[in-house]
């Protein structure tokens, strides 16, 4: 069974894609929690950050170094942003495919809630 994100990657369902390369895809969240709310998703299925393996290190690193590129392209790099990864039900993960939330466009409070 494919996850929602696998279906987006395969173009089986539409998404507002803002960035894509061979390793990852980034699109607008359909239930934004900030004026800018993007999801950065590896094309390889990694069920969650708590289940990542040593062989996933290159993908995880790529996600991290891609964030500044997306922030610059989308115009929120200079004002600041938050990157969040949820894992498991208590962590707020709702899709069993690793994804990073990029939130920007307003002052983000702490703790997040």
Description:
- There is one protein chain.
- A hairpin with a 3-residue loop joins strand 1 and strand 2 (24-28).
- With 113 residues, this protein is an alpha+beta fold.
- The protein has two helices and five strands; from the N terminus they run H-E-E-E-H-E-E.
- The chain has a single domain, classed as HIT-like (HIT family, subunit A), CATH 3.30.428.10.
- The chain has a five-stranded antiparallel beta sheet, covered by helices on one side.
- The chain is globular and about 35 Å long.
- The mean pLDDT is 95.
Attribute tags:
5-stranded antiparallel β-sheet, 113 residues, 5 strands, single chain, globular, HIT family, subunit A, alpha+beta
Q: What average pLDDT do the residues reach?
A: 95
CATH topology name, in short, is HIT family, subunit A
What is the CATH H-level superfamily?
HIT-like
Strand content: 15-25%
Broad structural category: alpha+beta
What is the H/E order? HEEEHEE
Number of strands: 5
Tally the helices.
2
| Oligomeric nature of the chains | single chain
């Amino acid at each position: 069974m494919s996850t929602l994100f696998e279906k987006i990657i395969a173009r089986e369902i539409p998404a507002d894609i803002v960035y894509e390369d061979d390793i990852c895809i980034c699109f607008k969240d359909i239930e934004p929690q900030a004026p800018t709310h993007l999801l950065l998703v590896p094309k390889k299925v990694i069920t969650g950050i708590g289940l990542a393996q040593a062989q996933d290190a290159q993908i995880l690193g790529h996600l991290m170094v891609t964030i500044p590129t997306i922030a610059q392209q989308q115009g929120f790099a200079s004002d600041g942003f938050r990157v969040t990864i949820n894992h498991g039900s208590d962590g707020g993960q709702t899709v069993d495919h690793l994804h990073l939330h990029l939130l920007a466009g307003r002052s983000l409070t702490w703790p997040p809630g």
